[in-house]
Amino acid sequence: MTKAIRLYEHGGPEVFVWEDIDLPAPGRSEVRLKHSAVGLNYIDVYHRTGLYPTGEPPVTIGLEGAGTVQALGDGVDDLEVGMRVAYASPPIGSYAEERNMPADRLVRLPEAIDDQTAAAMMLQGMTVQYLIRRTYRVKAGETVLFHAAAGGVGLIACQWLKALGVQVIGTVGSEEKAELARAHGCAHTINYREEDVVDRVKELTHGVGVPVVYDSIGKETFERSLDCLQPMGMMVSFGNASGPVEDFNLGMLASRGSLYVTRPSLMTYTAKRADLVASANELFEVVQSGAVKIEINQSYPLSETAQAHRDLEDRKTTGSTVLLP
């Protein structure tokens, strides 16, 4: 027997149940993994509430974790028992002490990266990797707008972008978060509670706007983000913290200067094994170089996942958060 957080219905954090589960032997091409740390991400909220489908209950959610291989299923020949590995990938199920996981979704951890750091950075770090290296490949000297600059993805992005010679304008909700973002390489912060984001972006860019906006907020910021773009700029909508973006008239893109809009996901960008490994390796390199430091600003026992979700949704968290089995 092992313990896991399970959902029998969708809803608020109170629907989480911490209980014993039976875990079968790993199937073909699977390994049994004992978690030492589990990552907390906003996509977990979408799974908990039912915004994103999870399958029939009871289910265990969570997409990120790190730990040690305990057993190998048939057909697994590139991993070994005792190997330290991490992942940020479906199938959901990381909110557990132990789980079975497809071997081709796991990456071996370098010795220099500990398990908690890995669990805190895999999903957020590989998200930043595809956003700034593939979705819109930034160039040195550019200025970009990044919403939620003091969040887990935001702090990694601010550091990585600065290392690439890119100036970041970041939105935040408080002066405390503004200071945190600036300390991690954000050149200019905008407190969206006190300042007009569009006016401030135009001021900082001398009326030109930015070539790309990275927006994980969704409904509340979508249209205003478009207004921050220069002609033929790209709106990258990669999250829904304030709710899903509502339907909109494509003519809005033409009237604002022939804009582009994309709704990417990490799962698409890492669907191929080669892309997953390349993304993880680039993340490992930038962290090991010291250019990006992973800030684990909160940790909770896995059994207290409900409180972790409350704090995440109330925007009380900064940087990365881990759940500890």
TrEMBL record:
Skewed-composition ranges (Basic and acidic residues): 307-317
Coiled coil location: none
Gene3D superfamilies attached to this UniProt entry: Medium-chain alcohol dehydrogenases, catalytic domain (3.90.180.10), NAD(P)-binding Rossmann-like Domain (3.40.50.720)
InterPro entries: ADH-like_C, ADH-like_N, ER, GroES-like_sf, NAD(P)-bd_dom_sf, QOR-like, Quin_OxRdtase/zeta-crystal_CS
Alphabetical keyword list: NADP, Oxidoreductase
Residue span, Enoyl reductase (ER) domain: 11-323
UniProt-listed PROSITE patterns: QOR_ZETA_CRYSTAL
Protein name, entry field: Quinone oxidoreductase family protein
Biological source species: Fodinicurvata halophila
Keyword Oxidoreductase in annotation: yes
